[in-house]
Amino acid sequence: MTTATPKPPSEFSTLESTLVSPADGIEFTVRWLPAERADAPVVLILPAMAMKARNYLALAKGLQAQGLSVATVDLRAHGEARPALGDHTDFGYREMIETDLPAIVAAVEERFPGAPVHLFGHSLGGQLALLFAAAEPGRVAGITVIGTGTVFWWAFGPRRWFEALSQIQWIGIKSRISGHWPGGVLIPAPMPGGVMIDWSIHSLTSYYRPRGTSRKYNTLLAALKLPVLVISLDQDVLGPKSNVDFLVSRMPAAQVTQWHIDENSPIQHRDHFLWVKDAPAVAAGVAGWITTGAQPA
Question: What CATH number does the domain containing 57 carry?
Answer without folding.
Answer: 3.40.50.1820
